[in-house]
Amino acid sequence: MKKITTLSFLFLSAFSGLKAQAVKDSVITGANYANQIWYSFKNGEQGTQPKDNWDLAFEVTGISSSILANTQKGLTVYQTPYATSSWANIDTTGAAASWPKLHNSEESWSAGALNTAPDGNTDLGWGDYDVNTHVITGDSIFLVKLASGSWKKLKIDALSGGTYQFTWANVDGSDSTTASVAKSGYTGKNFAYYSLETKAALDREPATTAWDVTVTKFYGLTPSQGGPVLYSLTGVLQNKKVKAFKAYPVVDTTTAFDTTAFTTRINTLGADWKTFNNGTFAYEIADSTVYFLKVANGDIWKVIFTGFSGSSAGKYLFTKELVQEATIPTTPTGIADAQFKTLGMYPNPAKGQFSLVYNYNGSELNNTTVNIFDLTGRIVAEQTIAVQQGINQNAVDISALQPGIYMVALPAFGGKAQRLIIQ
Fold first, then answer.
1. How far is residue 235's CA from residue 190's CA, in Å, rounded to a whole number?
2. pLDDT, tens digit, 9 for 90 and up, residues 147-157
3. Fold designation for 332-422
């Protein structure tokens, strides 16, 4: 692995004050990859759960209201052409042949299987957001084949007051069950989980601040002769606030990478660091491949996979190395959070532009950034604004954005977001 060693030396030369040391570690998910494991590069394993003990996962943080489906366990979810008003008389004839199968995005936690194909800015796929009541009301019916083989129809009734309510039943309407999951019961987590088979909610995840990556199975696109195909994969997915960069191929002339190459795409590590050799019936690890991860606190870790046992034990072997330790700035984004007082926006609803009004009582002057998110949590616009002492009023251009519901946040305010309606 000479090339990897060279990259490590060149990268570390940019941080001569840090004495790095590679540490060997492993994660074992069990025979047939039975478990999902949450892992911290600093503190090791943070939690283990059977990967098949849930069917639906409801996002409890952010504004995207993502709903995941555990399709890797054998659960199959179909998008039906029926609205919730047709709940009593849904016809499933020919469904498996003609209705699209749904899977979670392999790139974002905020795009679950039930969020597939929204048809507008306030539509989340499974339901539509009402700008007046702030309630998301379900508008779609899904056909679900459980891992046990039984068929169910499913609808998400609403997300109201921080509580998801959903209903499922046999296709003929019998054995109807309505359940709810309250976000408040899962504070500090990314998702709340539910098993349709046991009719029980599950608190599966460790606190989101405790882990960097999760080792599990998921669906993703893999190369094939006829083009990429969707396939069940075993691999590593990043937490929401973790950024990663893949350095490949690594050559002797490689220098320290550009930090702008970091991405929040959760499958940056993914599964393609290994391939199965049909001749030896063993997994081979991609040579000259190294990953850098910037975790939530700002530390940067270097990770190199060194082995994979396959389904016999589900064992992942790797080395990890802290190559840059986070520094804690005295003024995040250039300006101390506590020195900002109040935040207002007008007009709201707005068209073309709106104004931010706030009071800054600090002594250090600088610029800060305004971020505008859509309802999937994606940044759709950002603008740098100048900050002065006292009362500030900054115009923000939104002329390029379509009418709908957005969220506006300033990192210097600690990321607190406010709702903006664009007409």
1. 19
2. 999 999 999 99
3. Immunoglobulin-like (2.60.40)
Query: Residue 364, Cβ neighbours under 10 Å: how many?
Result: 13
**194, 168, 225, 213: which is closest to 69 by C-alpha?**
194
Q: For the chain, which residues score pLDDT lower than 50?
A: 1-19, 251-255, 328-338
Q: How far is CA 408 from CA 46, 131, 396, in A?
A: 33, 15, 10
Count CB-CB contacts under 10 A for residue 178.
Answer: 11
**DSSP single-letter state for residue 269:** S
Q: Which residues contact 103 (CB under 8 A, 6 or more apart)?
A: 69, 71, 77, 113, 219, 230
List the Cα angle 132/136/138 in 5-degree steps.
135
3-state secondary structure string across 358-410: EEECCCCCCEEEEEEECCCCCEEEEEEEECCCEEEEEEEECCCCCCEEEEEEC
DSSP class per residue in 223-243? --TTS-EEEEEEEEEE-TT-E
> HEC states along 188-210?
CCCEEEEECCCCEEECCCCCHHH
CA gap 131, 348 in Å, rounded: 12
Looking at the chain, which residues constitute the CATH 2.60.40.3080 domain(s)?
Answer: 332-422
The model's pLDDT over 130-183, given as tens digits with 9 standing for 90+, comes to 888 889 999 999 999 999 999 999 999 999 999 999 999 999 999 999 999 999
Query: Residue 298 corresponds to which tokens in the numbers above?
Result: 């700002």
Q: Residue 198: which residues within 8 A CB-CB, separation 6 or more?
A: none
Nearest to 171 by CA among 103, 82, 234, 49: 82
| Residue 14, C-beta contacts closer than 8 angstroms, at least 6 positions apart | 256
Q: What is the pTM of this model?
A: 0.78
